[in-house]
Amino acid sequence: MKHWILLVFITLLLCGSVNVACAEKQEFEIVNSSDSDLYVLEIRPSNADTWGPNVLTKDSPLKDGKKITIAFSNYDANVEYWDILARNCCNEELVWHKLRLNSIHTIILHDDDKVELN
Length: 118
Known about the structure:
This protein is α+β, with helices and mostly antiparallel strands. The protein has one domain (25-117): Domain of unknown function DUF5300 (Immunoglobulin-like, Sandwich), CATH 2.60.40. The chain has 1 helix and 7 strands; from the N terminus they run αβββββββ. Strands 3-1-6-7 form a 4-stranded mixed beta sheet, with no helix packed on it. The protein has a 3-stranded antiparallel beta sheet with strand order 2-4-5, with no helix packed on it. It is globular and about 35 Å long. The relative contact order is 0.22.
């Protein structure tokens, strides 16, 4: 009986650990080297039709040459490719497609759809 109770307790503990791990947000440092100040920065799975929420605040654009650490809530470790959309002050869009974000910590955004992942 004691072994059965211990087994149930360990199983519940392990299941709880898995749920906690799935709830974590993915954090990235994003460096803006695009030659434009960015006012909108949205991330989505490459196969999605809609963009995620703007990770920048309305009053705090990501200035050219600056960096920011973000945690985005729609991260899913099972998704292989992600897209990033940015808009500058003139509402011009910069889009970076099919980025593998599952093992990186720093994203350096350049103009002309170029990006460095470290």
